[in-house]
């Protein structure tokens, strides 16, 4: 459809003939519907009894997961409003590492409530104002819910465990994983902050049993360049190179036009001495472990092996970067520049075999307190989901430790927020009050969904939770093994970082209000 304006009698086209335009209520309701549909798609995965989703892409690749952000990203969503809900989950993942399903589900419900308000002729800008006001009250309510006892290792383990319940953790218990996770985060804690980035996760598929261990260093997939090399070097001086240790293919032909055996012998001789030169330079540098991102000639490897030097070739650039940050090495781009001051140091470098794979471990690096959670599992799907669960757990423990603030989980915080919003709504004038109340209703989706996913009646659960909240102050719908109880989540160790709740409220509000405000969709074909 072409848009036409007349200026001085001349028709002016401001949009291409091919663009699609939807306006007013139509635009609003189609956006709201799309946003709601996306949120609905992840609802059943919420909580400890949440189900998993199996996603199959066009190439037949299968992902089985319970993780909101992963599901939404794998779904290949095209609708622009729906895409905004995906962004809610993404920013949640980015900022705090957990609560993605919660944020998406709340955003979807805020849209659902907005739809009802629009039908009652509440203007979009009133809804937006009301939602913003309600989200401010929500943040106050979260602050009131923060556990005054702060966080210690036990609470951190509870945070880790709460974030992992309901995830497929293979044969491993959430409790044992939580222990490893907290140990890892404590390792990278400094006075200033928690260096979450210094915790890596390395997965290994195909080990006979599931296991996790904390490696005090980094792990990468690589075997020594030569069988004769030592499998382990203590107190290692490590050279990290971006240098090819060999004769570049094609170099010979370019330099020598070979037309006799003599010339060939000369060429081979020159090549040999060049290769020997590389090997000797490396050996004489004093490094006992050498890591290069490029190729290494077999003759160089063999010579270095005889010198007792451990060498890894063709290391990925990001692995090389990790080695550098763990050991304090300086990457060297030309062999002539290699000096002892470029070496990194580590307590131990070793190579170990796991089934079909060889792994390299660099432990006790001198420069940074890098640690790796080394996860082994029987199949790729198990290991992938374990990696996501552990990644989330590391994020939430880091978040909780950073701020020292945790709130009760299991829906208790959402119940408290909704309650506070409803109380304060009474003092808000005009139709905006309806929007503020609607925000509270939207938050009920969390306890309602936790109830539904544990086979409870959502309405009954909500009523019971509210009255328990009224009388006891803190009330969540706690899943404990086979039992579902309404009680104080803090007593059961069901806790979430306060920042996860804050981020969920903020990102859901932002996306919902942005979608509601749109009344004109103009799409290029
Ligand atoms: P999200 O992607 O939002 O983190 P999850 O599937 O991880 O979704 O579920 C998180 C919710 O489950 C939080 O509200 C958390 O408090 C709650 N939860 C965790 N453990 C329990 C439990 N044992 N009983 C009840 N709720 C729990
Ligand atoms: Mg979670």
Automatic annotation (TrEMBL):
PROSITE patterns: TCP1_1, TCP1_2, TCP1_3
Molecular-function GO terms, alphabetical: ATP binding; ATP hydrolysis activity; ATP-dependent protein folding chaperone; unfolded protein binding
Keyword Nucleus: no
Keyword Phosphoprotein: no
Keywords of this entry: ATP-binding, Chaperone, Nucleotide-binding
Entries under Gene3D superfamilies matching the protein: GroEL, GroEL-like equatorial domain, TCP-1-like chaperonin intermediate domain
InterPro entries membership: Chaperone_TCP-1, Chaperonin_TCP-1_CS, Cpn60/GroEL/TCP-1, GroEL-like_apical_dom_sf, GROEL-like_equatorial_sf, TCP-1-like_intermed_sf, TCP-1_chaperonin, thermosome_alpha
Domain of life of the source: Archaea
Record-stated family: Belongs to the TCP-1 chaperonin family.
Name assigned to this protein: Thermosome subunit
UniProt lineage: Archaea, Methanobacteriati, Methanobacteriota, Stenosarchaea group, Halobacteria
């Amino acid at each position: 459809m072409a848009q036409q304006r007349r200026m001085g009698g001349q028709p002016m086209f401001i949009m291409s003939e091919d663009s699609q335009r939807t306006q007013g209520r139509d635009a609003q309701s189609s956006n709201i519907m799309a946003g709601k549909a996306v949120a609905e798609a992840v609802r059943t995965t919420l909580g400890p009894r949440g189900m998993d989703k199996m996603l199959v892409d066009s190439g037949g690749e299968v992902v089985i997961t319970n993780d909101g952000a992963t599901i939404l990203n794998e779904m290949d969503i095209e609708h622009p409003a729906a895409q905004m809900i995906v962004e809610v989950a993404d920013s949640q993942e980015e900022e705090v590492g957990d609560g993605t399903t919660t944020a998406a589900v709340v955003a979807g419900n805020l849209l659902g409530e907005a739809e009802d308000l629009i039908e009652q002729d509440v203007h979009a800008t009133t809804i937006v104002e009301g939602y913003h006001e309600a989200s401010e009250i929500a943040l106050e309510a979260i602050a009131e819910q923060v556990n005054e006892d702060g966080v210690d290792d036990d609470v951190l383990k509870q945070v880790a465990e709460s974030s992992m319940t309901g995830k497929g953790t293979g044969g491993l218990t959430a409790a044992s994983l939580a222990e490893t996770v907290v140990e890892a985060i404590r390792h990278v804690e400094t006075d200033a902050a928690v260096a979450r980035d210094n915790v890596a996760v390395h997965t290994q598929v195909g080990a006979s049993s599931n296991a996790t261990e904390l490696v005090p260093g980094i792990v990468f997939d690589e075997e020594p360049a030569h069988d004769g090399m030592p499998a382990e070097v203590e107190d290692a001086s490590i050279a990290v190179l971006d240098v090819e240790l060999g004769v570049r293919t094609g170099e010979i032909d370019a330099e020598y036009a070979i037309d006799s055996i003599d010339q060939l012998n000369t060429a081979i001789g020159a090549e040999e001495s060049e290769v020997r030169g590389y090997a000797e330079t490396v050996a004489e540098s004093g490094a006992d472990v050498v890591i290069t991102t490029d190729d290494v000639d077999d003759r160089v490897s063999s010579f270095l092996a005889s010198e007792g030097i451990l060498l890894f070739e063709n290391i990925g650039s990001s692995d090389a970067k990790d080695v550098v940050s763990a050991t304090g090495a300086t990457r060297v781009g030309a062999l002539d520049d290699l000096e002892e001051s470029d070496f990194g140091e580590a307590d131990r470098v070793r190579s170990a075999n796991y089934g079909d794979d060889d792994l390299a471990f660099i432990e006790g690096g001198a420069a940074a307190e890098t640690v790796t959670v080394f996860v082994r599992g029987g199949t790729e799907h198990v290991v992938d989901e374990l990696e996501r669960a552990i990644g989330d757990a590391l994020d939430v423990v880091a978040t909780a430790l950073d701020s020292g603030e945790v709130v009760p989980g299991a829906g208790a915080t959402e119940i408290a927020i909704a309650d506070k919003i409803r109380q304060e709504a009474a003092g808000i004038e005009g139709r905006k009050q309806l929007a503020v109340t609607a925000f509270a209703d939207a938050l009920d989706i969390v306890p309602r969904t936790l109830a539904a996913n544990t086979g409870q009646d959502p309405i009954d659960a909500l009523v019971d939770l509210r009255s328990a909240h009224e009388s006891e102050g803190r009330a969540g719908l706690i899943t404990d093994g086979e039992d579902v109880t309404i009680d104080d989540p803090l007593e059961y160790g069901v806790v979430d970082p306060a920042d996860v709740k804050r981020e969920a409220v903020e990102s859901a509000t932002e996306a919902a209000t942005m979608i509601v405000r749109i009344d004109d969709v103009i799409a290029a074909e």
